[in-house]
Amino acid sequence: MSTLEEKETLTQPENAQETAASDNLLAENEVVMTDAEDQEIVDYSSFSEAELVEKARTLITECKGSVSAIKRDIEDIKSCYYKSYNQNIDKIRSEQAESGENAEPVELPADEFKSVYVVYQRRKKEEQAQKEAEMEKNLKAKLALIDRLKELAQNSKDARQDFNACREIQNEWKNIGAVPQAKADEVNGNYKLWIETFYDSLSAANELRDLDFRKNLEEKISICELAEGLAENKDVVDSFRKLQYYHERWKEIGPVAREKREELWERFKEATAAVNKRHREYFEQIHAKEEQNLVEKTKLCEEVENAKVENEESFDCWQKMTEFIVAKQEEWRKIGFAPKKDNDKIYERFRAACDKFFVAKNEFFKKMKDTQSENLKKKISLCEIAESLKDSKDWKETTNKFVEIQKEWKTIGPVPRKNSDAVWKRFLAACDYFFEQKEADFASRKSEESVNLEKKKDLIERIKGLQIEGNDNAFADFKKLLAEWNSIGHVPFKEKDNIYKKYKSTIDEVFDKLNKDRSINRLDFFKTNIETLASQGMAKVNNERKRLQKLVENFNSEIATAENNIGFFSKSSKGASPLLDGMKKKISKLKDERNLLLEKIRLIDETTEELN
User: Fold this and answer.
1) From CA 76, how far away is CA 74, in angstroms rounded?
2) Residue 23 near residue 14 (C-beta atoms within 8 A)
3) Mean pLDDT for the chain?
4) Fewer CB atoms inside 10 A, N or C side of the chain?
5) How many CA atoms does the CB half-sphere of 185 hold within 13 Å?
6) d(CA 395, CA 391)
7) Using alpha carbons only, what angle is made at residue 25 by residues 20 and 27, rounded to the nearest 5 degrees?
8) Which strand (E) or helix (H) includes residue 317?
9) Rounded to whole angstroms, how far apart are CA atoms 193 and 187?
């Protein structure tokens, strides 16, 4: 091979056709990658607002490299957060509208994400400034390397020494980062130009050339293997990004032997095509899902737009429709993103439909405001009544009054939401206090009544055991026992009649033993009772007198009826003497009973006069 042919071999890298093809592959996929950066990879839609804020804060804190690595996540989190945040604000406003008091200030939730996003933006800005400074530094370094290449190409003296120098320059070039985009093509073009010029200038470097070819071959085979290994990577986006890096490395590596070039390039291109296909299919699935989401969201828009309140004067109908709208909003939240070009538009359509409903609902509740205010006044009035009654100890009468005002409470309609809990708790507190006091009193009384029952049982036994014969003070002792009976309070209601019968039977036996007239027995017994009642308060004595007076009136009426009947039989009937005799005896008995009652009333009056 001639020297000229050697030079041509060295200057025939894959750079003309192969590099252009690689650039085309990259250019094609960079478009897809731009779209990928805007896609949702991690599904943050199920995260709560607090979880989204915490996730963003963690990503930023734990990101040790460039924040560009978390850009997609941060932007997706931002989108999900403000979607939820805005929906919550809409919900608060709609609830305010429901209360019918939209004119009052609404306390909106704080934007917790804002401060986290500011930190992200600040780091991003700082990194961008640092990156630009670094790229300027890289530009100067690469321009210096080009100058060194130019010197080698124009003033080559020792081929081996110059070749090693060129390899050193190539290695340094690989280690230098990116330059400003505006200068990238020019710098890379000049670099390739002077690499080729240097190789053209070599007159005798076959051995060095072959060594360089072999080294380049090893590096490109390694890149092919790495690219082929991406097929096993489950993270499609990560695979695609790594492929971009491999293409950049491929362009930086020098040429290989001519017979290996096509084969090696086809291998790399095939691995590239496989990664690109997976990447494309992955985002086609995402786009298909987004289109389906758009269809579902459009359907929800139509359902809300066509929803009608059955009866616009009915609170229940408005509430029923509210539940329907809220359910549709919940369905909306569960649906993922629509295509980017449609996402904001479809959201605004849905929000406008919901807003239209809640504006109409707000108008309805404004009309209800006056009624609710009037209802509040009525309920406050009932609260005041309940509070004035709650300390009463007249359990029966006050219980009836509480039952009445509770019934009235139920007939009053709703009050403004902001007052609802307070006025209800106020009313409930007064009711609860009264009934708790009543329950406590009855519980105490029940216990006391059981004790009283035992006392009366014991007293009956003591009356039975009273010594009559040979005891001049027997009657006085007996009266003391009767007074003691009257001083004992109530017994359980179910035992009341039974214990009294035993008591009455026992004292009648004692009276008989004392050989006293039954009526006198009764009067003595009654007088003792009256004295005992008087010691407990004149109200009970007066009540007893009223009761006796009513009984006297009943006896008078019965006596008058019986006397009229006698007159009838005596004029119209003959041979009815036995019947008339029976009726006369009945009248006589009734008069005795009435007279006894009159005596009791006289005793009450005497007792009252003595006490006064």
Assistant:
1) 5
2) no
3) 81
4) C
5) 3
6) 10
7) 90
8) helix 315-334
9) 10
**386-421: pLDDT as tens digits:** 999 999 988 889 999 999 999 999 999 888 888 999
Q: Output the pLDDT for position 256.
A: 84
Q: Can you point out the beta strands (E) in 530-586?
A: none
Reported as a pLDDT band with limits 50, 70 and 90, residue 39 is very low
Distance CA 530, CA 479 (A): 12
Domain boundaries, the chain: 374-442, 448-611
In the block, residue with structure tokens 């890149």: 223
Whole-Å CA distances, 549 to 357, 529, 597: 74, 17, 8
| Torsion of Cα atoms, 36 then 38 then 41 then 44, to 10° | 180
DSSP state of 203: S
Q: Which two tokens stand for residue 85?
A: 């945040």
Structure tokens that stand for 332 in this block: 């909306």
Residue 437 has pLDDT above 70, yes or no: yes
Residue with tokens 């993103």, as numbered in its chain: 337
Interval 267-320: pLDDT, tens: 999 999 999 999 999 999 989 999 999 999 999 999 999 988 888 877 788 889
Query: Which tokens is 575 given?
Result: 């041979």
Tens-place pLDDT, residues 485-525:
878 888 888 888 888 888 888 887 887 777 654 444 567 66
Two tokens, residue 497: 């009649």
**Residue 93 pLDDT exceeds 80:** no
Q: How many CA atoms lie within 13 A of 37 on its CB side?
A: 10
- Cβ contact 167:208 at 8 Å: no
Asked whether residue 324 carries a pLDDT value surpassing 50, the answer given is yes
The pLDDT of residue 518:
45
Listed residue (146, 162, 128, 238) closest to 195, CA to CA: 146
Instruction: Give the span between the Cα atoms of 579 and 204, in whole angstroms.
Output: 168
H or E segment and range at residue 81:
helix 71-99
* 67 DSSP 8-state letter: G
Residue 206: phi and psi, rounded to 5, are: -60, -45
Write down the residue that tokens 């004292």 correspond to: 507
Rounded Cα distance, 353 and 521, in Å: 93
Spatial distance between the Cα atoms of 306 and 445, rounded to a whole number of angstroms: 66
Residue 220 in contact with residue 264, Cβ under 8 Å? yes
What CA–CA distance (Å, rounded) separates 592 from 590? 5
Other Cβ atoms within 10 Å of 292 Cβ, number: 13
